[in-house]
Amino acid sequence: MPDSAIPATVERGDRVASLLAARYGLTVRTITQLPIGQGTVNYHAVCDDGLGVFVKSYPAGTDLQSEEAAIALSVRAVEAGIPGPRVLPNQEGQHLDASTSLPVSVWEWMPGGVSPLLSPSQLAEAGTALGRIHALFAALPGNPPEQGSAGQRWRDIDVDAITTTIDELLEIIADRISAGAGDAFDTMAQRTLLERRDQLTHVPGLLAGLPADLTVQVVHGDYSPVNLLFTEETLSAVLDFRPPDPFLVAYDLGRMAFYPNTVVGDANWLDAAATLIGAYRQAHPAVAAVDVRACGRVALLQLLKSLYGVRQHYLKPGLFQADLDEFWLVRHRAVGVLLGDLAASDTLLTELADG
């Protein structure tokens, strides 16, 4: 897991250490807070017996029942041979400890690190694991009407509402600049938001090009390089499964195949997508061709409709807002690249789906 860390605050670190002792029988030697994650506060603890654990602390208001279901997906995947950490039960056998005001889950510490840009062999490993996950989860029960509505809700993109939010953010930025409080990010945010407002005109056409019969099932939900650990070229862990709410297979696949850092950081991003999707299809030959053909447009639409990062900057800063600022800028650049090469990606995906 990532090595970079910041010391946990004494009070919160002591609380986590005390909880590990009382509920897990673990005596903590050192504990550090990790500068990762936006939805949870995360720690690396080393115990007296040398055991290293990853502790995920859930903030107030978290839907703990959904998080328990997400943990169950991770357990299912690991039991099926997908590389990943074991979740450690507390002394009552529970995978999520909610006995205090500091609910946590505790996981074995895994080797490896995150690679924002994956090599061809790492891409193949990531594609194989995702294919295996989708094949495994395809058998999970789901209510067909609910599954259909999940896909439809995703398609119901309210361009006017997104435009209104953009205008609100632009007004905040303009006020900051006129007051002499503007900074470099304000300038970049203003430019990118104006560009995004114009780019939203592509949404109706992109939606019209999506088939109606995209597959909806339980998926990983947050499959991306930041949730994959590699030891050199070998995938050592898939992390952070999301709750088992049925969603578009094309979303999981497209998000990974056309990950923004790859699109803007790798001149051969189309080749990278082909490598990942080729490995995915080998591991999951039953995937519907329509899902492969559509995954690029699904990824692009998801990026187009999202203001994640810049919205937090001005309305509700995240735990590590500097990371979210960079995330917004990279994602926005990726939108421009994907829009500019839409025909090329469509052609590639048709070849991969029919090959």
Short description:
The protein is of the alpha+beta class.
Task: Give a written overview of the molecule.
It contains 14 helices and 10 strands. It is of the alpha+beta class and 355 residues long. It has 2 domains: 6-108, 2-Layer Sandwich (Phosphorylase Kinase, domain 1); 122-354, Aminoglycoside 3'-phosphotransferase, Chain: A, domain 2 (Alpha-Beta Complex), CATH 3.90.1200. The protein has a 6-stranded antiparallel sheet. The protein has a two-stranded antiparallel sheet with strand order 7-10. Strands 8-9 form a two-stranded antiparallel sheet. β2 and β3 (41-47) form a beta hairpin. The two termini are 37 Å apart.
Summarize the SSE layout with pairings.
Blueprint: E1 6-7, H1 10-24, E2 28-34, E3 41-47, E4 52-57, H2 64-79, E5 87-88, E6 104-108, H3 120-137, H4 144-155, H5 159-178, H6 184-199, H7 203-208, E7 216-217, E8 228-231, E9 234-238, E10 247-248, H8 249-257, H9 260-265, H10 269-283, H11 289-305, H12 310-315, H13 321-340, H14 342-354
Antiparallel strand pairs: 1-2, 2-3, 3-4, 4-6, 5-6, 7-10, 8-9
Helix pairs in contact: 3-10, 5-6, 6-13, 8-11, 10-14, 11-13, 11-14
Supply database-style keywords.
53% helix, alpha+beta, Aminoglycoside 3'-phosphotransferase, Chain: A, domain 2, 355 residues, two-stranded antiparallel ribbon, six-stranded antiparallel sheet, 14 helices, 10 strands, 2 domains, Phosphorylase Kinase, domain 1
Q: How does the major sheet shape up?
A: 6 strands, antiparallel
Mean pLDDT over the full residue set: 93
Count of strand segments: 10
CATH superfamily (homologous) name of the largest domain: Aminoglycoside phosphotransferase (APH), C-terminal lobe
The number of distinct helices, counting runs of at least 4 residues, comes to 14
Low-confidence stretches: 3-8
By CATH, the architecture of the largest domain is named: Alpha-Beta Complex
Shape: globular
Helix content: 40-55%
- Sheet/helix structural class: alpha+beta
Strand content: 5-15%
Reading off the top of the CATH hierarchy, the class of the largest domain is best stated as: Alpha Beta
| Radius of gyration over C-alpha positions, nearest whole angstrom | 21 Å
Q: Widest sheet: strand order?
A: 1-2-3-4-6-5
Order of helices and strands: EHEEEHEEHHHHHEEEEHHHHHHH
Per the CATH scheme, the topology name of the largest domain is Aminoglycoside 3'-phosphotransferase, Chain: A, domain 2
Distance between the termini: 37 Å
Enzyme class: transferase
GO molecular function: homoserine kinase activity
InterPro entries: Aminoglycoside_PTrfase, Kinase-like_dom_sf
Protein name: Homoserine kinase type II
